[in-house]
Amino acid sequence: MDITIRNLQTKIPIRLPAVKRIAQRTLDYLGENQGDISIVFVSPQRMKLLNARHLNHHYSTDILTFDYRQGADGFLIAEIVICPSVAKHNAILFGKSVAQEIALYVVHGLLHLMGFDDHSPQKTALMRKKEAEVISYLFTRGG
User: Fold this and answer.
1) What is the arithmetic mean of pLDDT over 132-138?
2) Angle, helix 98-113 to helix 84-94, in steps of 10 degrees
3) How confident is the model at residue 71 (pLDDT cuts 50, 70, 90)?
4) Domains, the chain, ranges and CATH?
5) Cα dihedral 68, 32, 129, 133 sign
6) Mean pLDDT of the residues in the chain
């Protein structure tokens, strides 16, 4: 698995090696080992532009996931875009660190790529359960 991390914003410090480690360990846990994933950190302005362009939502959001796979060969090609400023806001709101919130977004984006979605209450509940399982593996059990 090739994982590329880019930080295109300057307001919130990001520990890029830690993000890459979280992504790799999550993918290992989920059994995904073939593909190319890019994780990009952007400003609220850029996130708002991407959200408007791709989802017709005219506001900044926490994370966008783009799955570029074509065909049925199973080779994962994807991009996860994260807005650290939104992560900081949500971290304060939920009593977490920014690093914890970003870890959750990485896991969330990867779960989207594995077929999970959050477009109905039932599917959201399944996704939240899987997020908690992966986060527990990553941080509590020493996985």
Assistant:
1) 96
2) 110
3) low
4) 2-139 (3.40.390.30)
5) negative
6) 94
